[in-house]
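Hi, here's the filled form for the chain we discussed.

Project: internal
Contact: R.S.
Residues: 269
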Amino acid sequence: MAPEENAGTELLLQSFERRFLAARTLRSFPWQSLEAKLRDSSDSELLRDILQKPSGGSVTLSESTAIISHGTTGLVTWDAALYLAEWAIENPAAFTNRTVLELGSGAGLTGLAICKMCHPRAYIFSDCHSRVLEQLRGNVLLNGLSLEADITANLDSPRVTVAQLDWDVVTVHQLSACQPDVVIAADVLYCPEAIVSLVGVLRRLAACREDQRAPEVYVAFTIRNPETCQLFTTELGRAGIRWEVEPRHDQKLFPYEEHLEMAMLNLTL
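And the returned structure, exactly as it came back:
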């Protein structure tokens, strides 16, 4: 193929991959262009490349079109949630056959991707806003997952619950009922008050495991304000929580902005 044809083919593949893996509507995909490429191609490389793309169940979301709605930012999917979902898909062993607690689940994209691709034993979505919790329950059902109380639950799927969890008031006893092996959070470092509350929850989680082994914790965030990030690491140090930066992953499956700087910390409680 000529260089310009190779470039056009690559762009077409990227367009297909992003729409498919990000569960975006495929009606906008240029199917006629794909058909023309397949008909004109001198070999089967294009078709083979498409067939070799990762496959799996799609994720369907109901979310707000406004950044702030009903007094919360939790009704939309933020970029760090996409970043964490990508990392999880690349590292499924971190979640397979384990109980996962997500703090500040928002619209639920990360958790739904983990439930469908990483095979956790149980997954606990959590948030404190009533409207977010309502949307979360709807998105769980929208994706063919059953809530734990549903007697028709698919035994091959993880046990899924949606829990109201207020970081400022939740107790060690209440957190102990979750017994998480893994705790995750994405894009929850949006103000000093939230950071202090989050670190408080992490301290309580360190004491909630019956076997005295603290859960693994992964926190992903977009670096919008270096001072906010510095406050988070400072508060972690004050709480005696060690952390290290996870290496940035290479594969980008979701269409977040290229210029955004993402980070994910692996915390030791």
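Let me know if anything looks off before we file it.
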